[in-house]
Design goal:
435 residues; mainly alpha; two-stranded antiparallel ribbon; globular; disordered C terminus
Length: 435
Amino acid sequence: MDNMMELAFPIIVGMIFLEIILGWIQHRHYYRVNDTVAGVSTGIMFMLVGVPTLFGALVVYNWIERNFSIMAHLGLEIPFDAPLAFHSAFPYVSIQWVPFLYWAVVVIAVDFLYYWFHRLSHEINFLWGSHVTHHSSEEFNLAVSFRGGSFQRVFEYIFFLPLALIGVNWLMFLFAHRALKLYQFWVHTAAVPELGPLEYVMVTPSNHRVHHGRNPQYIDKNHGGIFIIWDRMFGTYEPEREKINYGITNQLKSFNPLWMTFHYYAQLWQECMATKSWKNKVKIWFAKPGWKPADLGSSEIVYSDPARPNYDPPLPAQAKVYGITQFALLSGGALLAYSLAHDSVFGIFRLLILIGFVVYGLTVVGGILDSRPWVYPAEMLRLVLIPLVAFAIHLNGYLSVPVLLGCVGYSAASLLLLALLRRYFIQDVPAAEAA
């Protein structure tokens, strides 16, 4: 299954570059650097948390399927033979219809269960808290597909356990779930128009654009992953008719990936502590987003001005370049952490340190993009700690001398650059110098 994602990755990157080029040709700005960096940062955190989450989910799923499923009690097993057969001569590929039908049914079942998870994630507060990050972008492009709440999968996998109770093998489930996620990538684009008859059956870019709209008639519509038929069946379908305003009703004025991930839970906690009724303290986590206890004000959703400007704080070009450079390097550190997550020799403690530094760094980059005053000392602290921690790991016998020297060189160069750019981080600069 990892090969499935690895094979798709260069195609995904290529499609993003194609969308950027297409936007340039069409004179349409599909991307903003700060919004894209912030969204991908949440995606990196999502990826790092996703490794243990997926492992734990599959362990639970397999245990239920082996011990409690209907098929296990009947002494039967749903076959998961390959649906395709490959040959050395024409036609090279043939469909094995019986296995193919089994796999197709599982894909449809996964999409059906995903529809209900996705729908309820818009209708129940504590689930919306894990999903709202994905909707916080005020742009709509392929990179938005990476934007996600770090702990959404913790709740999402629970909705697929009925498949384990039936007796669907974990391999079939995982394949169908990966296929669902890969399909969802391409529908996050404003560059593709309506697709005719396909709009009636499949989730298309047009259908999914509606889902990301904050226009009153578009909110909580079109929840399907692959098939739009579930929305048509259960009354949550809405076609794309008027111009879509993207984002959430209460504008999230931050590019900080940690705050983007946890801001809604912070709001719920504050409201939970503020209300006096114990009943309401519990209800607030399960109510529909926007609901408030009577002692905290009106529950009526106030729809924001469609013409409101996108959150785009002014930032000196020098600070922006520094932040983007650090983001690129941190992305490399995240990929390293992801690969080392499968290396038992590296050890969980070292892995957590590496992940901690990546998340800390991405948070600082978000602070830079937000023009926050705390970023200068926070970044200095990060750059000082990196060689110290690297040296401690080296003494522990794991980090080689060349890697240690690389960490020291990176920190020294970044500290020098940070010192040279100090005034762009701690004081106002002339408007002409802002990006």
